[in-house]
Every structure is written in C-alpha cells, then in structure tokens.
Design a protein that fits this description.
Length: about 450
C-alpha cells in the first residue's frame, strides 16, 4: 500500500498474495450480483477453495485478455480500505492503490487512460468522473459499494436543510464537503464558494473556507468536523452539530426546537456539522487507548474517530499518514492503529516483515472489552467475480450501464437502483462540483 504523489504513477505496495493462505473475502450471496455478473459469480462460488493458487488462474482467464485488449489505455484502481485482498489483486494486474485524494486525481493526471475501473465505493469513482476528461470513461466493479457515512448524508437529506441555512445566512455560509459525499453535495460546496476536503487536508481546507469570517457547514462527518475545529482552535460552544440523520432522515426544520442550543447557538457558531458518522471508526473509546498505552504501545487513529479518542492518542491522520507511520516505524515498535480493519490487517502483514508489531485498536486481548476491529462491509462488496466480470464485459463491449459512473449519479446501495441526471443537469453539477474539487487541490498544492 502507498501514499501516492498524484502526479506520478502509483508505486507498488509490495503486499504479496501468499499462495498457501486463503483469500479472506466473504462470499456474497448469488442474488447480490447483477444479472450480467451472475455467470462469473457462479463459476467463482464453484471453485473448491479461496486460495490464490485456485483463484488466480481463474481470475487470469478473464483479466489478462482485458489487459491485452486495452493495453495502456486501461487504469485499475482501488482504495486502501478494500477487503478480500482486492488491493493485492488490483496491484497484481498493474493497478494502483491510494487514498481518496490521490484517487480523485488519477484521471485528470493521466489523460492517456481512457478506461478507468475502480474497485472501491461509488463516491470515490464519481469524484474521478467529475474531474475526468470527456474521452475518459469511469467504471465501478460494484455500484452497490457504498459508505455508511455517505448513506446518512444523501442529497435528499442534506439539501433541504442546507437551503434553510443558506436562506438564513446567505453568502456568510460556505459548505465544505468531505470526499465521502456524492457529487450532488460536492456541487453544493461549489455553489456556496466552498471546497471538498479529505481527512488528510481537512484542517487546511476548513481554515481556508473560514476566510472573511465565513460560517462553515461541514458535511457529513461530525467527528472529523469536531477534530478539525479543535485543531483550528474553535471553542466548543462555537461548533453546533445537527441532529442524528438516522432519526430525522434529514427532514427537519432549522428552529429552536430541533437545533441543539437553538437558533442563538446556531447564529453564534463558526462551524455547523452534519450529524452523520462512520460506523467503523466510532467503535473506538478512550478506554481502548488507555489499555494499549498501559501495555507499552503507541496509539494512532484516523480523525473520523471520536474527539476524545483522538485527543488521547499519540497521533491522528489520514490513511496515508497511518500507512507511512507503519512503514517508517523502527524495528521493535508496537503500534495500535484505530481505523478500518482490512487496512490494519494489510499493515500488520507488512510491518511484521520489518520487526514491527501492529494491532487493531479495538482488538484488545481482554474479554472485558468485547470489541473487535471490523472492516468496511460496503467496501467489501467488491470481490473477484466483480473484477473479473467488469473487465470481461468491457472487453466484449457489453458492460452494464449501471456500472458506468457519471457525475450526479445516485445509486441505492440495497437495490442498485440508479437515478441518473439528464445531460443538462449533469453539466451544471459538474461545473459546481469540479469548482469545489479544484478549490481543494489549489489549497493543498499551494501550501
């Protein structure tokens, strides 16, 4: 795995598939596959085991012809958090693994890549599509691969609330949309003169957005928002978190009854947080940190973790920060990492080769805790049959339309139902969303 300089080809992570070890991807039920992918899934499910010596020859039969067919015009991508060794499989076939910032830039930085296939979640592929050139097509291996945080910040939840805030504050309000949002919310950021951010640059982007005393609407992660506000020195009473979208579904009025602290608190705020969160990162507690510290381990966490966990840890940062930390740790170091479970498992494998111990923060070897490190279940919906099927169908010229990712697409993570904008609506959305993404790039690269 890696932190890629987005201007260069993504380097190899060096993570090798061990032929005697099974792939850890949990098989999906056959009815979870689109009709076009079921033949590939049936073949995969009929394999006698999930060891690389069995899976790879089967996968080669579909992937290699596609690689030969498309040549240098094909780009395979995946995110750090992908489960089931997809990161290793994508790299095996010459693809790249990176964080969401580097992934978003791959199309625009590599115009020679005309067919881009991403094994990750939909919002990541859509970010690539927003910045892509007209002659580049972005595809996702499974359009139902989503993000729990983004699922609690759908446009139909956020936009009615945002419009009320815009009506109340006008040009004083600027939206910062975390990368874990749809293009429809990235467009909101662009329309309000805001920007997109990632966990690696949230502090820089929010600091920029506060120019001229602007009030920031931060969507969607309340924990990254709180941690960013704290880093920038905002007083707790100047940060207001809107109600839990699991309860409201976003359908709430901006009034004294619903807003914590009422309208007076909202008016006095510097930052307004949407109330969603990442289930993977909210399992961590201060007690987890204390246990590892008491046993001589350093603790580093992702900033989507609760603020009290971040404050107790030895450090916090993005997936790129965490990977770099592990890869550069001295022999004998002991690191408890608080982030997505597949990432930690891959980090542990690489660290062990250099005499570094890595554990998942929630995997405390004490039954009193009763917790375990979990991987992102929605990202794990990308598996070998999806990779094989997507590439084979593309080679044949018969890819499902639902797997093409266009800016503004909204996909139901359960049914796979697709809501696609018409061309005029898409052009308008791309203009606004691209403005927000380019604002982030300018902030980061001018620093």
């Amino acid at each position: 795995m890696l932190h890629a300089d987005a201007d260069r080809a993504l380097p190899s992570s060096g993570i090798a598939l061990q032929p005697e070890l099974p792939l850890c991807q949990t098989d999906l039920p056959l009815d979870w596959y689109q009709a076009e992918f079921k033949p590939y899934a049936e073949e995969y499910l009929a394999l006698p085991d999930r060891k690389p010596g069995t899976v790879l020859p089967w996968l080669d039969g579909y992937v290699q012809p596609a690689l030969d067919h498309f040549g240098n015009s094909l780009l395979l991508l995946a995110h750090y958090y992908m489960g089931g060794e997809i990161v290793k499989l994508v790299e095996r076939y010459g693809g790249g693994i990176a964080d969401s910032y580097a992934l978003a830039l791959q199309a625009v930085r590599h115009p020679e890549k005309k067919v881009i296939v991403e094994s990750a979640v939909h919002f990541m592929a859509e970010s690539i599509a927003i910045l892509a050139n007209d002659d580049q097509a972005v595809w996702i291996t499974n359009p139902k691969a989503g993000c729990t945080m983004e699922m609690l910040a759908k446009d139909y939840m956020v936009l009615p609330v945002a419009e009320q805030l815009i009506e109340r504050y006008g040009d004083e309000l600027v939206c910062v949309a975390y990368m874990n949002t749809s293009g429809r919310l990235k467009a909101l950021a662009g329309r309000t003169g805001g920007a997109v951010c990632t966990s690696s640059n949230a502090t820089q982007v929010v600091d920029w957005a506060r120019r001229d005393g602007k009030k920031v609407l931060f969507v969607p992660d309340q924990h990254l928002g709180r941690n960013t506000a704290a880093k920038l020195g905002m007083a707790d009473e100047r940060v207001v978190c809107l109600p839990d979208p699991q309860v409201t579904r976003g359908a709430f009025p901006i009034d004294d009854r619903v807003v914590p602290g009422g309208l007076a608190a909202l008016d006095a705020s510097e930052m307004i947080l949407w109330g969603s969160f990442c289930g993977v990162h909210t399992v961590f507690t201060p007690q987890h940190v204390d246990w590892w510290h008491a046993h001589g381990w350093q603790v580093h966490v992702h900033p989507e973790s609760p603020r009290e966990v971040v404050e107790r840890a030895d450090g916090s940062g993005s997936t790129a920060y965490l990977w770099k930390l592990v890869m550069e740790a001295p022999r004998g170091a002991k690191l408890a990492i608080g982030t997505e479970g597949h990432f930690v498992r891959n980090a542990r494998e690489q660290a062990a080769l250099r005499g570094v111990e890595v554990m998942h923060l929630a995997d405390v070897p004490d039954p009193a805790f009763g917790t375990a490190g979990c991987g992102c279940a929605t990202m794990s919906r990308n598996d070998p049959p999806h990779l094989a099927g997507m590439l084979d169908l593309l080679r044949k010229g018969t890819p499902p339309a639902a797997n093409r990712v266009l800016a503004g697409d909204s996909v139901d993570e359960r049914s796979g139902a697709l809501d696609r904008l018409d061309e005029a609506e898409r052009r308008e959305l791309v203009a606004d969303a691209k403005r927000a993404l380019e604002a982030m790039i300018e902030v980061v690269e001018s620093a």
